[in-house]
Amino acid sequence: MVHIVVSEAEARDIVAHSHTVVLIFTAAHCGPSQVLVELLREESSRRLPIRVRVVFVDVASCGRFADEHEVAVTPVALGFLDGVVKYRMEGAIPATLIRICESLSLCDEASQMSGRARGPMKTFDMLADLTDPAGDVSDLSAILLAIAKDIDPQSRLLCENVETDDHLYNRWRLSIKGVEVKCDLHFKRHKEHYQSLRIQNSREFEERFHERIASLEAKRVEEKLVKLEAADTTAKKEVNLPKVTTVKKEE
């Protein structure tokens, strides 16, 4: 979401109450600043991650805030994560700004997962990568069986597919310590991923399943961050993009 503010108080409030936000200092007399504003409003804003807000502020109305962050030229973009500057960029390159937004979005996702039990919504996000509309669930089957064997080495897994014209159901039955645990995955035809997953009869199995999925998701996010940073480094070497600085928080 692209937003333009006119007061320093509003800018500070947005930074203080946003998990992820990119604050762009611009100036009315600065040509590159105006070009960046128009490009993001008309084109690039459609590609910005929905987790990240992009806010334009005029240095003339936010002078003290700009001085605090040593903004001597415009445009300058500051990427905030939970109120702390994580990225700084000087220049008017929309592609670079979008990469900063993508990095912030991934950082936000990773920080939200750290030390937090993941619920069904996040689990479903990760399951989309373990399944497909054609019904290939081999990765998910392997995870389910591995978790079951962690609880009971004698666990067994049976899986059956039930197909109709519009739906595909994968049904797993696991025998864990003599208890039949049911896992039902429901696809709807012509959709990109599953519709629902239900686990019954074992709270321990369900909790371990969500923990395993959260671990896989955290690993995936870290891999994305590494690739994104590598791509950013390569791009800057190839086309001499403005320097993007990762600001480390002081101990």
From TrEMBL:
User: Which segments of the protein form a coiled coil according to its record?
Assistant: 211-238
Q: Which residues cross the membrane?
A: none
Instruction: Report the residue ranges that make up the Thioredoxin domain in this protein.
Output: 5-97
> Which key words are in the record?
Coiled coil
Q: Which SUPFAM superfamilies match?
A: Thioredoxin-like
Q: What is this protein called?
A: Thioredoxin
Organism in which the protein naturally occurs: Carpediemonas membranifera
Q: Which lineage ranks, top first, belong to the organism behind this chain?
A: Eukaryota, Metamonada, Carpediemonas-like organisms, Carpediemonas
